[in-house]
Amino acid sequence: MALKMRHNRSPNPPQPCMLTECMSIIAGAWAPNVIWSLRAGPRRFSELRSDIPPISAKVLSTRLSELEKRGILLRHVRRTSPPSTEYELTPLGEELIPALDGIVQVGHRLKQLQSADTDLAGTST
Amino acid sequence: MALKMRHNRSPNPPQPCMLTECMSIIAGAWAPNVIWSLRAGPRRFSELRSDIPPISAKVLSTRLSELEKRGILLRHVRRTSPPSTEYELTPLGEELIPALDGIVQVGHRLKQLQSADTDLAGTST
DNA sequence: CGGTATCCAAATAGATACTG
DNA sequence: CAGTATCTATTTGGATACCG
């Protein structure tokens, strides 16, 4: 019988493919920034470009299409002159904000740790 | 004071570079899977390879080095014969788990939504 | 303004072979 | 077992030009 389960070493990773697939939502260097820029409300294409300085129109356009297709954001075109387009997070998209925030928190502490290390290295001789 | 605050259109994106930098912790296709596989306790190199099926030794090795350097995990070498190495999340690394989990939750609902769409499309004629 | 098309550069990943 | 080295393939991003 397969009852000789080890207390650790559990060969029980819950679908790594699922994780990979979910992570692909925010894949690419810029998707998280797009979501982040939209967290406070709708933004237009050129506003997003200013929010996220070195992003090219092509990449921004590509990311926006993908995120729209996945249901993370909505695109709203106004046929004014000049034309105007607004992008806005869906409720589901908004749920990604806390997750991104969590990662930023960890990143922040990581930097503090590294500063502390440097600090100690400098004072220990 | 700067009271003429616009209710939206706020030109106030909190350091997109910071977000980008933090996100780079989990950059690459496999880093999240590595962290995920370690969430239940220490794992050895070959165990991680089995956990995350199609990962090559080179990529796993690269990711592990990066994550170790950043302080997300610890490497513990046992000079036994044959040699054995264990990888383990640091406390900071463990803090990434809830964030990853949040993303997975959203991904999961996204899939449900898409199934619902398909379902409706099939029944509406 | 809000994109798309094309071409090119850089980063990431995979396959294979080899080492301690 | 636990990697590293090398080479190549794929993906991603950037620059520029151009269109509605």
What does it look like?
- Two copies of one chain form a homodimer.
- Chain A is mainly alpha-helical.
- Helix content of chain A is 55%, strand content 11%.
- The first copy, chain A, has six helices and three strands.
- Chain A is globular, with a radius of gyration of 21 Å.
- In chain A, 29% of the residues are buried.
- At the A-B interface, helix 1, helix 2, helix 3 and helix 6 of A face helix 1, helix 2, helix 3 and helix 6 of B.
- Chain A binds a DNA duplex (20 and 20 nucleotides) through residues 27-30, 44-46, 54-62, 77, 80-85.
- Chains A, B: Residues 17-115 form the HTH hxlR-type domain.
- Chains A, B: It holds the Pfam family HxlR.
- Chains A, B: It comes from Pseudohalocynthiibacter aestuariivivens.
- Chains A, B: This is Winged helix-turn-helix transcriptional regulator.
Major beta sheet, strand line-up of chain A: 1-3-2
Q: Assembly state here?
A: homodimer
Radius of gyration of chain A: 21 Å
N-to-C series of helices and strands of chain A: HHEHHEEHH
The span between the termini of chain A is 59 Å
Which word captures the global form of chain A? globular
Helix content of chain A: 55-70%
Structural class of chain A: mainly alpha
* Low-confidence residue ranges of chain A: 1-13
What is the mean pLDDT of chain A? Answer: 83
Largest interface, with Cβ-Cβ < 8 Å? A-B, 50 and 50 residues
Q: Can you count the helices of chain A? A: 6
Strand portion of chain A: 5-15%
Largest sheet of chain A: 3 strands, antiparallel
Total E-strand runs of chain A: 3
Protein name (chains A, B): Winged helix-turn-helix transcriptional regulator
Keywords (chains A, B): DNA-binding, Transcription, Transcription regulation
InterPro entries (chains A, B): HTH_HxlR, WH-like_DNA-bd_sf, WH_DNA-bd_sf
